[in-house]
Amino acid sequence: MARILAAIDASAYATSICDHAAWFAARTAGPVELLHVIDRDEGARPRLDLTGNIGLGARSALLEELTRADEARAKIAQEHGRILLAEGRQRLLDAGVGHVSEIHRNGELAETVIELEARADLVVIGKRGESGNYSPGHLGSKVERVLRGSSRPVLIVPRVYMPITRTVVAFDGGPSALKALKHVVHSSALIGIPCLVVIVSGNAAQAKRRSDAAREVIDGHPSALIMVLKGGVEAGITSQLRQGAGDLLVMGAYGHSRIRELIIGSTTTQMIRSTKVPVLLFR
Mean of the pLDDT values across residues 221-235? Predict the structure, then answer.
């Protein structure tokens, strides 16, 4: 039984998050914890400079009015969160999930997920949050903080849900890639799902080492294949994905140092940005 922590907000990804969580819960007979976090900066008013020539009485009245406005915004945010959780819970129950609990917090998404993930086997979040609805070429900053801080497998979902019918594992032979491949082979959620292991390397000796390592893991898996490609990693893996057709991309997350990523970019981030399939990441 796998416990699933699914974080939703008011973005267009909320229904897809619930549907993907329901798919994994159905395959593992596990419960779902539905999380909504009210960001501590959400709706924060601009800080005003009241040190000018305005009178003391006027300043006090204005501060009291701003305080009342802040309290009203906080109440609206709380009620909105309760509605989101109730709707998400009903969607999960309608999909057949046996046990759904709700968690409503104030704070920061990544910090809250990292705090709660110890009791979860899988974290599910959308590719972007509320503020990222109109930024298709970008990965949400809160999402990236979750990915970099979480020690659990994290499923990043696109806007549109498709039942998973095939896994594509990006395999570079590193520790996180080995962890990801072993999970695909042994996970109860992915039993019976065909698996394609993609190795991108222009070096024959390196490609053989990676193929041998992958073959040891998938030995006995009835529907796993290994494919070796040359060229760029992102282009090679993307070419094997049936975008919007039920594929799940599985890969290790952030295999290089932050300094190197700042210079040449991160394959992890680029793959999440460019694909329209759910991405399951392992640290």
Answer: 90
Among residues 278, 200, 209, 205, the alpha carbon closest in space to that of 244 is found at 278
Residue 154 Cα distances to 30, 57, 129, 157, angstroms: 16, 53, 15, 10
Give the per-residue pLDDT at 259. 36
Token code pair at residue 194: 């065909």
Query: Predicted confidence band at 130 (pLDDT cuts at 50, 70, 90)?
Result: low
Beta bridge partners of 125: 156
Greatest alpha-carbon pair distance for the chain in Å reads 80
Burial label for 76, CB within 10 Å (0-12, 13-18, 19+), is: exposed
Q: How far apart are CA 36 and CA 56, in angstroms?
A: 40
- Is the C-alpha dihedral spanning 73, 78, 79, 80 positive or negative? positive
152 three-state secondary structure: coil
Q: Write out pLDDT tens, residues 132-153.
A: 544 554 556 788 888 888 889 9
Q: Would you state the structure tokens that stand for residue 135, as one six-digit string?
A: 């930024």
Query: Please, are residues 283 and 176 in contact by the beta-carbon 8 Å criterion?
Result: yes
* Type of residue at 99: H
